[in-house]
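Subject: Interface between my chains keeps coming out wrong

I've been trying for a while to get a sensible model of this assembly. When I model each chain on its own everything looks fine, but I need the whole thing in one frame so I can look at the contacts. Pasting all components below, labels as-is. Any help appreciated, I'm running out of ideas.
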Amino acid sequence: MASDPNIAIEAGDTLDNLVQQFSDQFAFLRELVQNSIDAGSGRVDIDFEYTPNKDNEKGVFVLHINDTGEGMTREVIDTKLTRLFSSSKEDDFTKIGKFGIGFVSIFALKPKAVFVDTGKDGEYWRIYFKEDRTFDRLVLPRPVEGTQIKWIKELTPKENENYREESRKTLKKWCKHAEAEVYVDGELINEQFDLPHKLAVNLEGQGTYISAAPSGSDRPFYGFYNRGLTLFEAEDVIIPGVSFKIRSRYLEHTLTRDNIIKDKNYDKAMALLKECVEKKLRPALFAAAQAHTDDETMGYLAFHVAKLPPELENQQIIPTLGPRKASIRELKAEVKRHKELLYEENTNAVVQRLVDDGRLVIRWNPEKDKGLGTLLDKLKGNAPMTRANEVYASPTLLTALPESQEKMIQAAMRILHRAGSPYRKVVAGNFNYPNSTVHDRLYLACDKPDEVIRFDKIAPKGIFERFFGWNKNTTVILNVADPLIEPHFRLKPEFRKEAPYLLASAIVSDDGIDEKTCTKLLEAYLQEEDEVGV
Amino acid sequence: MAIPAPEYERERPEPVLTHGVDPTQYRILLRDADADQFLDFLRRLIKGGRLNQFYPNPNGLDNLYRLMSPSGNLGIDPEIRINPRCGLPSEPDIGRVLADKEAAPRFLARNDTAEVNSRTDEASFKLHRRLQYLRDVHKSDLPKRIHHELKLRKIDLVTKTASFYSIFERYDPGEGVFTRYTITLQHQDSRWNKAQIEMQGDDLKATEAFRNVISRYHSDEAEFAFILLSEVPGIKVEEVVRGRVGPLWFKEADTMPDEVRQLLEQNPGNFILNFPLERVVINSSAKEDLQADPFSRLYRNTVEGDARQFALERAEKLGYRVFKERKFCVTKAIAQPFQQLLAERNARCIVYTI
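Reply #2:
Try treating it as a single job with all components included. I did that and got this:
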């Protein structure tokens, strides 16, 4: 080998600082892989070799880093590789390296020697870097493809293990998505770039590839990469409810490699990310929600309902107990009109009649469907969520009662009338329909007994006022199967005379009997007895 | 004056029959396990060649040959025909997989349904196999017959100059090999020059005229393409690199140098896969051209008379240097004698073995 010795690496006082430029001393491996990728290598092999020394505690550790990139000519070696801040890659969108200082980090761990074999255009070179960082450039008699580096240091067996472990960890951290295949001791360390999520989407263009997926975490994962090399990974809110990986020619490391440069190119990358979320992830979430009712998806959607375009606002995604899902626009209209949002887990007579009347009843189980709960919270504003069966009832009207029962009820009603009740009519009803929440009520007052009844809005609060005070409702539906009412129909003949009075008292007792009510009822009964002869 | 295309000497030895006779030009017909074995060797040779970005994408080729193999296509097509001139799978077999790639989305959308997959009759099993194969084809990266891509490197707003790479990959049916051209260009926008490329954001889009130029000129040697592209107004060519995968030499193939044929006849069952690379570049520090490819000649030396004179003048005027190299991946048993053969030719080539 011809030799051209004793050339010192041209660096001045800055070299020491630059050698230790990274907090992780093994980060030089990343710089070398980066150089290999920039050189167009499709594969980088990193191998470890250790030869123990019988006579010495320390053996020889050799780290091999081989690529098949375009290699270097003497000119490149002299003007770029061994010169700081003389990168030819500056402002080149197709290269990751920019500053021309990465290579010197190979000295951070104080190697005994570093051999760089390389060649291009028929010239093949060995650069031998010594411990003091001076180097010789030697002519190689054999061809070399790409660049082959041997990094040599004396280590104890234990240090050898540690170096292998740290090297592997460092390479995995920075190079797991590298464009080139990276083999460490023959094992491929590359991992799939796309986020492993069933709803992950991707966007490609302008030298940028984005994988974005919904996330329910309050600190979603994100990562920035250039040609697959990791620039920065963390967990935090960049876009709420979105985890992402973005590989872009626009992204660059800071000089210290501990973050990325946030300049106008970074803004371009982020604009693409925003486009990916708005044009791909959000529609994908809506499409998934439309196709399947999956609570996780509903939870994800909660992050994506602001400023919706009409086509998404009209997409039917909210599960209802009606014939189809509802759109966000329909849900908002319901809230605006009724100042509340009704929900139920399952359908029943009440829900069916509400749906028939054009109401929106969301299919929701607050205990189980937390995701949907979060979404509804976002959509309904301050309006309350109301369980339909807790405020609406739909008793079945009984029109074919035995004559004696019918008579008894009408007599009781007359007594109530005489006592001052505003109700004009009493009808019998069955309150025991599936999922009924009114089965233990004695009666329900309403204006239109054949419609679904809202029963949580009885205005008067006092006992007397409830039944005898002002009330816009005109009809009472009596729960004839209630244990307080039903026995009246089975009274022995000797007690039947008093039965209407007792029935009237029982009806009123639902609201609590006080002295005034008792007196009024008794007076009414006696009056009825005198006039009609009950 | 028209620039002549280079001429090649074509050897036409007597056909050698192996496993079957194909009435077409593709005499070598391999079936089932033989086809699998051949393609497995080919894939290992490509992987073993450690290709960089100047060659056609090795992963795409690996997928292509995997899906072409009877085991890869689940026996749907149990045969492959070998192009005896390049020793590689024939154009119709390549075309079959590439056509399946195009047809797969439509076919899968129509047939990959729960109903079809739940069928249990004999005829449907065949369909299930086809679906499984097409799913694999659909998700696999494959090379394209022709693919052109522009990669922006730098923009100089002051001089209105864009530096970029034009990457053109094609299947060359003439030679039967996949080829990639990587051209480093500068394009200057001026009132005198018709724009060859358009900026779209920070992306480049080739005009139709430029695409035509690229596909017309990327049909032969890098030097030939370099000269022709240098004639395009507004374009400054800095470098043209052509990388190829092939030919594959083995005993039964037709076209190869005599001494290689001799070697393979003495070592049947062995393979030599060629990876030629040509680089034509301006501003090189090299004082002369490099001809380190033992099995090819410089373009200028393939033409004669006025044409040669013209080519020499262009080389002088454009000031480029040509570097021709070739690496190989060979089966282990033939590595040593092949290295020796190269040494006898004074060729310093990289030879990988599998």
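Reply #3:
Confirming on my end. Chain B touches chain A through 27 residues (CB under 8 Å).
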